[in-house]
## 1
Amino acid sequence: MSDSTLRRPDGRLAGELRPISFVKNIAPYALGSVLIRWGNTQVICAVSCEESVPRWMKEQGVQGGWATAEYSMLPYSTLGRKPRDITRGRLDGRSQEIQRLIGRSIRSVLNREALGARTLYVDCDVVQADGGTRAASITGAFVALKMAVRKLLDEERIWEDPIQKSVAAVSVGILKGRALLDLDYQEDSAAEVDMNIVMTSSGEFCELQGTGEQVTFSEKELQEMLELGRRGIYRLNELQEVAFLEGEKGD
């Protein structure tokens, strides 16, 4: 039996994603919102808007708008309770790094001049974590972003769609010498190599975060992981589009 036909603990093949679904309008007061269910990982992604831009943009004369993100894991999202950042008086390094990644990913597909002098805030709250929370946050955030932009267009607050292409993210890794797509927590915690890939629908990479946790990895293994990730993200782009269009006809 070849590696490509070996089943993983949850029954998936090496290049298979976990089941993914989107529940739209999970936060009615947000401009756009979804609950993304990705295997046993669940993240609420919501977009809000303020009719202003950061102070640094005004001071530097930067035209257009801005998009930024906040990421948090709710205390009950993991097996052991995770204290809220506010109780420690500071944002932990991991959350800070992830929310910056989400913000960069969203901005990579935005024409910020078309957005106008306003700021979009993307909030990603992890309800349940089983690996891949940053990938789920970015992938879900884009659907919420599209919903928010549609509302801005419908309300004639903007006149041009600022979204230039879609963006999604997925994890890949090497476990027991085998390249795998979309690692759950059990696989991720044991992987020799762990990588997160953020890519647009036109095949351009926004970010690659790869680490040899226990071993180094070869160029061949890197290419194998990149190809798994590329195929996975194209599938995610399709799922994002289906989720966005659900219920749009006749609205």
## 2
Amino acid sequence: MKSEEATFLPLKGDGGSVIICAHVNPDGDAIGSALALKHILERKGKQATVIVPNIFPDFLKWLPGADAILVFTNAKHKDQIKTAISEAELVIVCDLNQPNRLAALEQDIMESKAPRILIDHHLDPMRDFCQTVFSEPDMCATGEVICHLLREAGELDSITLDEATCLYTAMMCDTGAFSFNSNRPVIYEYISHLLARGIDKDQIYRNVFYTATEGRLRLQGYLLYAGMKVLHDRHTAIITLTNEERRRFKIKNGDTEGFVNIPLTILGMRLSIFINEDTEHPGTMKLSLRSVGDFPCDQMASRFFGGGGHKNASGGKLQCTMNEAVEKVMAAINHYTDMLK
């Protein structure tokens, strides 16, 4: 993205309706970025609606504007979503690089006659997917891409508290509270601007990372004791979670967020893999990969699990049983034994 091309097109003009859609299984960056765009556009006089393919974590529902998000898997929202897409004058696709990441929303979005804008930070975006592409893989989060666009448009010092709160949450979530992929000084320049708008970063951190259900705490203890396998010779840990175990602990949406990071606190660990059975599609195993140092999670996810992401944080999926998923994960680990040792 060239700086001279970084005019923030959605901010131009008044009136008109815009839909903002994020990827399936939306995370903090997806929800925070989408809501930030919603508030920015509404401040500019537009009608903006955030649409996601499926449910998002409960620990993000405190964000300003989250109660207005339309969820495609919610039967009560489907008519509203169809209407919003058909009437939209502009579609903003947020925090994804391929149309299939829209899941159940893909067909309706691709059939919309409205122009599409992509705002993202993942590798290898499908550039003909949208007419206008703002893609910066070197940036820590889509939230940072939006901060960059705001600065280029001369808007960064004009944002509201709600906008700043959403943008900080987006960047905080995609960097593990700025513990990885966050060494570039400009990130903290943006944070300084957001703090100047009045955000309470400590409260945001507590809302996301320190608001747990009893079920989450009990499940965490159970998984670390009974559901974690540590391969000491390869500095790797694997955690598994089935839907049966999820029901046993009465787990709510989002209660497993961050579990994949815990094994990396073990001295010498380089890689952690969390295999989590999909609640909406039994028989589908979702994989989250996290690493420290130079181990390429994205390469492993792409080669073995049909996924991708970033060097130290990636994901993928497998269509199989949990036992089969563990076998496939072990095969992937064996392939990278030399790097892990």
## 3
Amino acid sequence: MINQMPTKDISIVVPLYNEEESLPELCAWISRIMLENNFSYEVILIDDGSKDNSWKIIEALSKDNSNLKGIKFRRNYGKSAALNVGFEACEGEIVITMDADLQDSPDEIPDLYRLIKVEGYDLISGWKRKRYDPISKTLPTKVFNWATRKMSGIYLHDFNCGLKAYKHELVKSIEVYGEMHRYIPVIAKWAGFTKIGEKEVKHQERKYGVSKFGFERFVNGFLDLLSITFVSKFGKRPMHLFGFLGTIMFVIGFFSALWLGGNKLYSLAFNLPARLITELPFFYISLTTMIIGTQFFLAGFLGELMTRNSSNKNNYLVEKRI
């Protein structure tokens, strides 16, 4: 992402899909809060390939409000893609994300702004202690939050809350893809933004339409958790994982085969009955272990070559220069 200097106090990034009923009320609510607090702001609405009249409503609203911007995808790419494009386009010193279904309250914006601007947090994640979602949604969410806390070391209650606030530098330094929007705090920590906090926020019942998320998001979320854990630990040094596993497996297989050979020689030396090594299943297990170990080692070596040659420049984040 191209890092640009902020020109406004706040950018509100709102990904949406088929939310035509809620958009006028949401935009009016945000505008009222901004005027009451004398914030300079922009609202970036990202239409993620809606099939209803969401884009027509965005066009109409933007004519009456110069602070409102719209981005429309040709098809549905998902929330992560919408957030990534919104982060690229935003110009605010503080960036706040929220959902378009009115379940996130714009009344939380001033406090979120203060936590980033005054108290110096890099990221604040909302925590909906009391939720108005069915148990089929809340129970899997609790499981994922528990697993993410254990694997990431970031102790937030609700990683998937759409209401979050970020420093400008943070959103310009990360890339969100796949279904990784659930793990933005993990990505931020990986990028070096470690002052991460949370704020209890009000969760409102859905006023219009239905939820756009199905059961498959939980399967995708689990796979993305494994992916982000692997990438964060070994993305820049694959040899540390594959080389280690390969070496361990090769050594186990080698010494197992060596033991078989030594046992065969001992039996021959003392005229003891001994089967052919190739008749022993353990010999093939040892051989297979050495082959798999070699493949793991080569995978790590090739991974190192790919990471070294994938870019002509490094991606290390420099905080300050003199």
## 4
Amino acid sequence: MAVTTLNGMNWVSIWEELFEARSKIMQRDYEIEDWTKRAEDYSESRRTNQWDFGEKVYGILNHHGVVNPGSSILEVGSGPGTFVIPFARRSRHVTAVEPAEGMIKKIQQNAQEEGLSNYDILPRIWQDVDLNRIQKQYDLVIASTVVWMFKDIMTQIARMEEAAKGYCCVVGGVSSGGSFEGDLWKTIMGATPYPQYPEYPAIFNLLYQYGRVPQVRIIEYQSVRSFENMFNMYRIFYSIFTDVTPEIEETIKKALHEDSGDGPCVRNYRSSVVWWSPSERRNI
């Protein structure tokens, strides 16, 4: 199949190059256990303002007719229930694909607190899900956060499309231009280039390049975490790239204190909600 490039740019190649550049500065790969260790802090961030992040994503998709109270939804890489909880409040059923034991426990705990039972969990990584069992079963297949882990991004998007009888959606970060993460990285890692996690607009351009007809809306939301949970997040993140010594731990704590005092740590984010119908294609 011929692939149209955008202004001479092949977005799959760009995606793969960023993946490789990130891998070169990592001393180890992400492990499922890392996400179990992050379950508490991640759950806290997603629960901010009664799951405001997930609620806003649902609101956009509902407004545009993508989901409704009768919808069945599959979330790829569910974490602590980023979309499971807010979507299950307003939909018929949600299936979570999540391999990390700590995150699974958080989904169950968060769902119990909300009085929700209209969900199930596939406890494995997305690449190991048997598509024969879920082919064309879901009105919406949605992913957030995990897409940058897929070097073979279009293969995994095609798998999402196999499971969808309606729409697919990828929710990705939009750079806010904030300097905290960049300054902290430079203090700890020196001249090592900051890792790039391409989400938006890369995912939109990938979809368009491969003939999809994506729609996009931008949302703004807030994350509130305790000092301890924010510190835990950064400690695990930097352990991917270097040995986290007591000196590095002190550097992280000092930066957080200067930024937020003793907490809570408040962050304002922007994310893109990109959705498309697999049945709608452009000629390329």
